[in-house]
Amino acid sequence: MTIRGVKVNYLRYGDKSAKDTIVLLHGWGQNIEMMRPVGNPFAKKYDIVILDLPGYGQSSEPPFAWTIYDYADFIHDFLKELQIEEPILIGHSFGGKISLEYASKYQVKKLVLFASPFHKEFEKQPWKVRVLKQLKKVPLLKKLEPWAKKHMGSTDYRNASSVMREVLVKTVNLDISDDVKKISCPTLIFWGTQDQAVPVEEAYELEKLIDNSGVVIYDGCSHYAYLERLENVIIVLRNFFRS
Q1: In angstroms, rounded to a whole number, what is the distance separating the alpha carbons of residues 60 and 115?
Q2: Tens digits of residue pLDDT in 75-95
Q3: Fewest beta carbons less than 10 Å away: which of 35, 51, 88, 100?
């Protein structure tokens, strides 16, 4: 499938006749595999869609340096092509920022955020370094460490296309706080207290900005709290989706 000039790699599985579709958006520099542990437990009762965001995995790069607004509109066009009108939207980190912007503009049944930044980010150390350090702390992600080193190491970063470098700059420098205030769907926010990429204080800021939202905090967990506490996250999500 090609949307807005981008060849999109995606998975659609589970119960395609289900009333609700869960759409999962991965974080920066990642791919479909990072979200499958969340999607798989719901495959018996929900329609599941996971995609490689443009510029990652097997999806092609955007034709120019997209902003978060462009990514959100791309997701809307992508879901429209699949005839999905009101998804349950789940996003981690970069995918979470896209999800926030999407939910501020389009219909979303329920929104789930895993450590999702929403204002300008000030990085104390390079993003790729922080990601690799935290990947090593998550047992579930051990098998992905070689992939991460290959795709997020310093050499690969320096050799990355100018388009994706510019996308990163635009992403970390964009504040969408005013848009976040427009979100009206039920929203659940997950965070780890030891998140070194996006501080846990932002979870509480999001809760204040979004009506009908709640926060789940995991003590001692990193930017990947959703995987470190996967079993509990799935239990909480089941209840959230049913409520």
Answers
A1: 25
A2: 999 999 999 999 999 999 999
A3: 88
> In the prediction, which pLDDT does 149 show?
46
- What CATH number matches the domain at 2-242, 3.40.50.1820, 2.40.50.40, 3.30.420.40, 3.60.21.10? 3.40.50.1820
CA dist 2 and 55 (Å) reads 13
**pLDDT for the residue numbered 19:** 95
d(CA 116, CA 191): 9
| Distance, CA of 81 to CA of 96 (rounded, Å) | 21
Its pTM stands at 0.86
196-212 burial code (b ≥16 CB/10 A, e <16): ebbebebbeebeebbee
Under DSSP, the state recorded for 35 is: T
Asked whether the beta carbons of 36 and 10 are under 8 A apart, the reply is: no
Q: What pLDDT does residue 98 have?
A: 98
Spatial separation of the C-alpha atoms in residues 92 and 113, rounded to whole Å: 6
